[in-house]
Amino acid sequence: DSVPILPGPLTRVQRYTAKLISGPKGTLTEMPNCYLGPIIRLQKGQKVRIHFRNELMEPTITHWHGLHVPALMDGHPMYIIDPGETFVYEFEVINRSSLNIYHPHPHEMTARQVYYGLVGGLIVNDEEEAKLELPSGEYEIPIVLQDRRFNAQNQLIYGAHMHDRMMGFYGDRVLVNGRPNAEFDVASRAYRLRFLNGSNARIYKLGWSDGTPLTVIGVDGGLLESPETFPYVMLAPGERLDVWADFSGRPKGSELTMRSLPFSGVVPMMTEHRMGRGRRGGMGGRMGGMGMMGAMDLPVGSDYPLFKIRVTRETSESPMLPSRLSKIDHYTLSDVANPDKPVPIEISESPMAMLLNGRPYAFNDIQPFERIPIDTVQLLEIFHTGGHGMGHGMGGIGHGMRGRMMGMMGGGPRQEGQGMGGGMGMMFSMAHPIHLHGEPFQVISRSVSAARADAYATVKDGLISSGLKDTVLVMPGETVRLIKPFYHFKGLFMYHCHNLEHEDMGMMRDFLVE
Ligand code: C2O
Ligand code: CU
Ligand code: CU
């Protein structure tokens, strides 16, 4: 019952050719019969050289998401290379143990290139982690989550139409490590599951089918200080999650499913002004379903399976979950250079474009607040515009589009003219995974406006604020404060939405560390 992904005209351009030239400890693990790039394993302290050859028919460049490397090695879009050219990366791995991502970063082409397969996992190991003797080898399973759409010939479909750009592109099938209907045969013991959300736009709410809580041992920037349990965990594009999954005591033949659980990721704009001008017909029923969005066959925020675990072997030998995992140096407000003046990252959702700080991406457009003094620790605040300037008409989009967007969000049928009508502006506010290049940060506070509290309640117990992060999911109406160090390297380091269609639309900016 599984749909094979047939090799087609695209497969030629779907592979990274990564060769680790130096460092005896670097290894590549191929993902067999899969369009994903191989998993690259590096050691903290290792010096690597990577020859990246562009065999596409268009420019590209690769970014090492999560690694802190010199600006020149960070895959900034200004370093794109043409077909046939090679970019030689050289850097020292200064990150602690963590699961990172390598993926393209050419401006306006990232989403499509990632979609067609240019993405892979990059694992850093270090001595602190090695001492813990966490499950490894066959007991450490990478889980790259992606959603895709296929045509009748089993080839990937991608098309960023206006509504796809506004919401992001969603598939109607979830692939795990490039495969549909994924199943893992396990022994009745502890495993380490290393999740990476490599989807363009889809957000997952991970939960075990039998209600077992998730035991989290790490996030984007590596291990937590100690294990923490969550009823479910939100995982947005660009985020990673390290899970201790103990199948001890489960009898041979038993099964367990990892699901994405229901949540509300999109909320309608409901100000008096807009409501007053809209047509009211059909609103009531739609509101209920507005928490969902994305491909109608698999709405985001609906309930669907991701992969199955099948216990095929019983064993009584299983490692113990360590109670202490690592030591993290916590920053506080007294460490930051700007306690009273956080660096703003304002999310603006306007009818035609999603932006950060009100400006679309452009080279050489550094604003004063985007200049960061080197070797400082900064307080940053991510927040929503709050509805200002969003009352413009949907002019060029027209009624059909409005109806379609609403239909998508509600998971219901497309109906012309059933949108909120008239001269309304952006009719929804959605969740955005905001990613910052460079060193990982710490989330110090989150708060949500009262008007968005209902949607927030469907995700809040699955947002992890401990540990080191490089991507943070910011919900509608939410304000997130974080502390981020800017050490080691001067130059341009991007910050952007990791909904890749948003990123390509210009929801991306640079910090200039100087
Ligand atoms: Cu994963 Cu700037 O990206
Ligand atoms: Cu990055
Ligand atoms: Cu976004």
UniProtKB/TrEMBL annotation:
Pfam families: Cu-oxidase_2, Cu-oxidase_3
CDD domains given in the database record: CuRO_1_McoP_like, CuRO_2_McoP_like
SUPFAM superfamilies to which the protein is assigned, alphabetical: Cupredoxins
Keyword Membrane in record: yes
Annotated keywords: Membrane, Metal-binding, Oxidoreductase, Transmembrane, Transmembrane helix
PROSITE patterns: MULTICOPPER_OXIDASE1 (PS00079), MULTICOPPER_OXIDASE2 (PS00080)
Residue ranges that the Swiss-Prot or TrEMBL entry lists as coiled coil: none
Domain spans labelled Plastocyanin-like: 15-128, 429-514
Highest taxon of the lineage: Bacteria
Record keyword Protein transport present: no
Protein name from the UniProt record: Blue copper oxidase
Species: Methylocaldum szegediense
Lineage, highest ranks first: Bacteria, Pseudomonadati, Pseudomonadota, Gammaproteobacteria, Methylococcales
